[in-house]
Structures are given as C-alpha cells and as structure tokens.
C-alpha cells in the first residue's frame, strides 16, 4: 500500500513571509499561487504541454535515462524580469556531491513560454517573496523544467539525495503527476532533527524553501501505468550573481 501524506498548505489568510521566517519552508495551493502572483491559474495550467518535448539530461552520473530538462537564467530587479544570455548550469561539490563541479549545458526554455506575461509575473512574485525574506536586492534566477519518468523502472527526482542548492530560496512547482507512485517530498531542518514528509499532488501547488535553513529531497517514483512521470518547475533565487566555477 502506498502512503500519501498531504502537504501542509498555507491558508489564504496566512502571511507567507511569517511562515517562511518561522519554519524555513511553506506550501501553497495552486489557487493561492495564482492569487499571490497576480496570474490566472488557467494560464499556468496551459504551460503543461511544454513538458512533453523536453530534451534528455545527458549528464546523469548514475547512468540513468529517467530525467529530461530545460534550463534558462534571469535577473529579477523589483518587478523587472530580464533573461540573460544562455549559460551552463554549475554547482559546487559542497551542494551537489553527485553532479557538482560539472559544467552542464542544457537546452533553454522555449521562447514562447518566456515571452508570456504570466512568466514574468511569476518570477517577479518569487523575487518579492525572496526580498521579503532576505532584503530587497537583485535576484539571479535559474529556472529548470524537469520531467522524471519511469523509463528505467524507477525515476529519481533528486539523485544527489537530501541537499541544499547554495541559493537564497528554492521554489518547486508541481506541474503534473501521471501514473506513478512515490515522489514524496522530505524537508529537514538543516540545524536540527525536525522534518516533514508529504506528497505534492495538485498541479501548480508550490513548495518554497529557505535554502539556508532546510535540506530537501524527493523520493524515487515507480510506474503505476506505462508512461508514468512527474513534471516540475524548479526556480532558484540567489544573491550576488549566478553560481559559477571560480
């Protein structure tokens, strides 16, 4: 029997900044995401088909074929969102023991997605949330479209295990779950024993993480039917520039 723990979603009346300050993470339902970001939920839902043609991730050091992705970078200053020239994704070994130290080149997000007003509104909202948490400043944003599938019989959303990302804030939007079991989210206090486990199931719900305070991971997925997959949009916000090899 598969256990599914519902996420501890905020009520619409709760102050997001207070919750992030108190516990280091927060979960918002899809309708609350749309309301707080100032976008129409159908506009977000219409993006889902863009996950159907993601290129394979050819950098998996565990030899897997279960991950597809795109990646682009932006700078958010107040409500202004600017895409920057395409650049590789890089993390130090300190934050990614499996793929750290490796310059990974992925195809960019589709121009049609980035050009939509809702895209800039979503990133600008995340910038405001991060500024409320860390102080107002420019935010260096990396956006990743992920599809984890069950091609290999099992798919690993976080093959590097429980980790931090070396940024100020991480947003994990669930885009779709189809024909899979597993994919449980686990969030741990980086400085203590406390932790939470739950399963994001509602499309366009989001998990927001204060990366300095918590460690996170998602458990592997297994198929319930052919073609099972889990789609996410992961957005990281960092001060002082993008992570880059020294």
Structure description:
The chain is of the alpha+beta class and 246 residues long. The chain has one domain (22-238): Sandwich (Jelly Rolls). It has helices at residues 16-23, 30-37, 41-45, 111-114, 117-134, and strands at 25-28, 67-77, 80-83, 139-149, 169-178, 180-182, 185-189, 195-198, 206-210, 214-218, 221-223, 229-238. The model has no long low-confidence stretch (mean pLDDT 91).
Task: Name its key features.
246 residues; alpha+beta; Jelly Rolls; 7-stranded antiparallel β-sheet; 3-stranded antiparallel β-sheet; 5 helices; 12 strands; globular
β-strand percent reads 25-35%
Structural Rg: 17 Å
Q: Helix-strand pattern, N to C?
A: HEHHEEHHEEEEEEEEE
Tally of individual domains: 1
Question: What does the largest sheet look like?
Answer: 7 strands, antiparallel
Return the CATH class. Mainly Beta
Q: Which spans have pLDDT < 50 for at least 5 consecutive residues?
A: none
Measured between the Cα atoms of the first and last residue, the distance is 48 Å
Q: What is the number of helices?
A: 5
- Average pLDDT rating: 91
CATH architecture: Sandwich
Helix content: 10-25%
Question: Do you know the CATH topology?
Answer: Jelly Rolls
Number of strands: 12
Can you tell me the CATH superfamily?
Answer: q2cbj1_9rhob like domain
Kindly report the spatial arrangement of strands forming the biggest sheet.
1-9-5-12-4-2-3
What best-fitting shape do the alpha-carbon axes yield?
globular
Coarse structural class: alpha+beta
């Amino acid at each position: 029997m598969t256990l599914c723990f519902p996420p501890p979603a905020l009520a619409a009346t709760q102050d997001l900044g207070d919750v992030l300050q108190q516990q280091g993470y927060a979960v918002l339902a899809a309708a609350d995401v749309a309301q707080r970001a100032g976008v129409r939920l159908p506009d977000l839902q219409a993006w889902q088909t863009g996950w159907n043609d993601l290129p394979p991730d050819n950098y998996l050091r565990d030899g897997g074929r279960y991950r597809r992705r795109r990646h682009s970078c932006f700078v958010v200053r107040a409500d202004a969102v600017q895409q920057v020239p395409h650049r590789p994704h890089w993390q130090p070994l300190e934050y990614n023991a499996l793929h750290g130290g490796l310059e990974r080149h992925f195809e960019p997000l589709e121009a049609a997605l980035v050009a939509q007003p809702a895209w800039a509104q979503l990133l600008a909202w995340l910038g405001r949330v991060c500024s409320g948490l860390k102080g107002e400043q420019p935010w260096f944003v990396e956006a990743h479209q992920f599809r984890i599938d069950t091609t290999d019989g099992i798919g690993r959303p976080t093959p590097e295990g429980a980790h931090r990302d070396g940024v100020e804030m991480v947003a994990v939007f669930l885009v779709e779950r189809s024909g899979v079991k597993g994919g449980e989210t686990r969030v741990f206090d980086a400085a203590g024993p406390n932790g939470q486990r739950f399963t994001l199931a509602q499309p366009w719900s989001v998990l927001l993480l204060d990366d300095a305070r918590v460690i996170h991971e998602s458990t592997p997925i297994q198929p319930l039917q052919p073609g099972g997959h889990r789609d996410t949009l992961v957005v990281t916000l960092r001060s002082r520039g993008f992570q880059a090899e020294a």
